[in-house]
Amino acid sequence: GVAAARVRALAEAERAHYATQNPASQALAQRAAVHLMFGVPLHWMNDWATPFPLHVAAARGARLTDVDGQERIDFCLGDTGAMFGHSPPAVTAALQAQAARGLTTMLPGEDASAVAELLAERFGLPRWQFAMTASDANRFVLRWLRAATGRPVLLVFNGCYHGTVDDVFVDLVDGRPRQRASLLGQVHDLTATTRVVEFNDLDALAAALAPGDVACVLAEPVMTNIGMVLPEPGFWPRAIELIHRHGAKLVMDETHTISSGPGGYAREHGLQPDAVVLGKPLGGGMPCAAYGFSAELAAAAEAAKRAAPAGHSGIGTTLSANLLAMAAMRAALRELMTPPVYAGLHARCARLADGLRAVIARHALPWCVSQVGARCEFQFCAMPPRNGSEAAAAMDEALEQAIHLALLNRGVMITPFHNMMLVCPDTSDADIDRLLAAFDEVLGLLAG
Ligand code: PMP
After folding, report:
1. Chain centre to alpha carbon of residue 447
2. Distance between CA atoms of residues 394 and 50, nearest Å
């Protein structure tokens, strides 16, 4: 719905504007270029639409102040890590109290069982373990599942992302699995043990499960990393029935869909996976992740460990479940991941999603908006995509980047990857209006 020349012109003007408005960020970027590879502490930090990284002075609630003293309303929220706002007071207080009493000991404290109890109650799964990141949690879960089932194969949905877990970097290209070309330094053929089908395709799922060698299906309940792909009505109940009929397990990665409610999308929709993975906002912004197993799966995993020779299991890292992380999770679970907090998030996000739809309609663009609790996304297609291939076909990086940078120059930030927005408990109606006004202005420039 938008001419490429207009996208180029907007991007060019916005890049020039950004460069003049952010001299302190530019100076820090120049300094960082000397000793930081790619000029940033993590190379993805260059994936923003900005010509050089925006450097942060402080972040609090829904706002971020950059080193040039400009305040931005943050709808990226650390790509979900800060879904409960930056430095939520409950977590900050818990961290301050714990920091004076030890940071890491490789031994549990009182918070350990309290956190596991809260998780069991919220997610309906009785047995838990911890990791530092959702990537690690997924890696460990995969290992447990293969050990517990004695089956080698992982099944994923096309276009998925579950963190830097090599096994999932397999796409469906012309109906055939192909290792993602962007994956660096992997010397093994992952297609030998990873099978991939389209989301919402029950026949393909059944066919992929039929050989009886699938340990688990690892899936987000709603795909959120290739734009948003919602499950069709009835998809998950039927998929779960198929997965179990073929002796496989279902692992739901709720790292992003925790935006749905205090027990994730599965709990909100009455689905019962065998395992759940959580990360990002679980510690209110601290590096924390957790995974929960059903009693049956946990028993099989524990039996596999007991039956294995003594030595390294390949599961765990030294700092996982450290005292500080456990204190952060306890505070976040108790104070932030609660029904009243979520009710506010969902109402605000619905307001945002409706507002985006109205702006898009005003400019007569063939774009759609999907919402999953506290997160929503606009996509460059008239109807919500039904699978990863359709979602990928609707992506347009040049257009995304032009919009993102134009919004940022107008004081609002959205996630650099595709068009995702999150609200947090501190996001106000006025903040949402500000985003909608900026979006309206930018679409006006693009659509003419
Ligand atoms: N699972 C999902 C669904 C994700 O979206 C992500 C990150 N975007 C991860 C896992 C990995 O999280 P992290 O990068 O914090 O390890």
Report:
1. 30
2. 22
Amino acid at 55: H
Residue 307 tokens read as 């039956």
Helices and strands in the chain: count of H runs, count of E runs? 14, 16
Helix runs in 36-109, H state only = 89-99
Minimum-distance ligand 1 atom for the alpha carbon of 160: 3
pLDDT digits (tens, 9 = 90+) for 235-267: 999 999 999 999 999 999 999 999 999 999 999
Distance in Å, CA 81 to ligand 1 centroid: 10
> What tens digit of pLDDT does each residue of 314-348 get?
999 999 999 999 999 999 999 999 999 999 999 99
User: In angstroms, rounded to a whole number, what is the distance separating the alpha carbons of residues 356 and 126?
Assistant: 40
What distance in angstroms lies between residue 52's CA and the mean position of ligand 1's atoms? 24
Nearest Cα residue to 71 out of 83, 88, 49, 54: 54
73 pLDDT exceeds 90?
yes
Cα–Cα distance for residue pair 69/65, rounded to 1 Å: 6
47-57 confidence digits (pLDDT tens): 999 999 999 99
What predicted TM-score, i.e. pTM, was given to this entire model?
Answer: 0.98
Instruction: Report DSSP letters for 201-264, one per residue.
Output: -HHHHHHHHTTS-EEEEEE-SSB-SSS-BPPPTTHHHHHHHHHHHTT-EEEEE-TTGGGG-TTH
Ligand 1 centre distance from Cα of residue 387 (Å): 19
User: What span, in angstroms and rounded, lies between the C-alpha atoms of 321 and 131?
Assistant: 6
Rg of the chain in Å (alpha carbons) = 22
